[in-house]
C-alpha cells in the first residue's frame, strides 16, 4: 500500500503545512494564507491578552485560541483552566464564524463555565466574557462576523 508522506515540522512531528485562512481552515497547497501563530511561545499574561485581543479584533479567533493555548500549557497550574476556558471561547467564536452553530454554541458555553469561577485575574472581564459567550451562544443561527463579534478581554484593551 502506498502511504502519502505526512508534512512534518523541523523537529519531525507531524504538522500539516497547508496554508490556513483567517479562521484556521486549511487551504490548498500553494495558496496564500494567513501567517500561523508560532507554537510554544511563553508570554506574560499581559502579552497573551494583548496578542489575543489583536487577533480577535482582526477576525482571527482561531489564531487567538493558539495564543491562549500557549498560556494554558506554559502557565501556572492554578491558571490553566482560565487560559483553557479563554481558548474555548475563541474556538467557539471560530466555529460560529465558520457556520458550525451547534459546535460554536457548545464551546462558548463550555468556555464560559470554565472561566466563571475566576475573579478577574489580570484585569480580565470574566463577568463580561461569560455574558458575551452565553448571549452569542443563544442567538447564533448562521455564520457570524468574527471581528464584529469579538469580545473585549479586559476593559484596558
Structure in words:
- The structure is a single chain.
- Helices cover about 50% and strands about 0% of the residues.
- It is mostly helical and about 160 residues long.
- The chain has six helices and no strands.
- The mean pLDDT is about 90.
- It starts with about 45 loop residues before the first helix and ends in an 8-residue tail after the last helix.
Keywords, separated by commas or semicolons:
single chain; mainly alpha; 157 residues; 50% helix; 6 helices; globular
Short description:
The chain is mostly helical and 157 residues long.
Q: Any chance you could write out the topology, listing elements then pairs?
A:
Blueprint lengths: L44 H13 L3 H14 L5 H19 L2 H15 L10 H14 L6 H4 L8
Helix pairs in contact: 1-2, 2-3, 3-4, 4-5
How many helices in DSSP terms?
6
Q: Give the fraction of residues assigned to helices.
A: 40-55%
Count all strands and give the number: 0
Poorly predicted runs are none
Helix vs. strand class:
mainly alpha
Shape: globular
- Cα separation of the termini: 54 Å
In what range is the share of β-strand residues? under 5%
Largest sheet: none
- Strand/helix succession: HHHHHH
Radius of gyration (Å): 16 Å
Average of per-residue pLDDT values:
90
Amino acid at each position: 500500500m502506498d502511504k502519502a508522506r505526512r508534512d512534518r515540522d523541523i523537529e519531525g512531528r507531524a504538522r500539516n503545512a497547508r496554508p490556513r485562512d483567517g479562521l484556521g481552515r486549511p487551504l490548498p497547497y500553494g495558496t496564500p494564507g494567513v501567517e500561523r501563530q508560532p507554537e510554544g511561545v511563553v508570554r506574560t499574561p499581559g502579552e497573551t491578552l494583548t496578542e489575543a485581543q489583536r487577533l480577535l479584533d482582526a477576525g482571527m479567533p482561531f489564531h487567538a485560541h493558539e495564543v491562549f493555548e500557549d498560556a494554558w500549557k506554559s502557565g501556572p497550574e492554578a491558571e490553566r483552566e482560565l487560559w483553557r476556558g479563554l481558548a474555548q471561547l475563541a474556538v467557539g467564536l471560530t466555529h460560529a464564524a465558520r457556520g458550525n452553530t451547534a459546535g460554536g454554541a457548545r464551546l462558548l458555553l463550555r468556555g464560559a463555565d470554565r472561566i466563571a469561577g475566576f475573579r478577574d485575574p489580570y484585569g480580565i472581564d470574566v463577568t463580561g466574557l461569560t455574558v458575551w459567550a452565553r448571549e452569542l451562544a443563544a442567538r447564533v443561527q448562521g455564520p457570524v462576523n468574527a471581528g464584529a463579534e469579538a469580545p473585549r478581554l479586559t476593559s484596558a484593551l
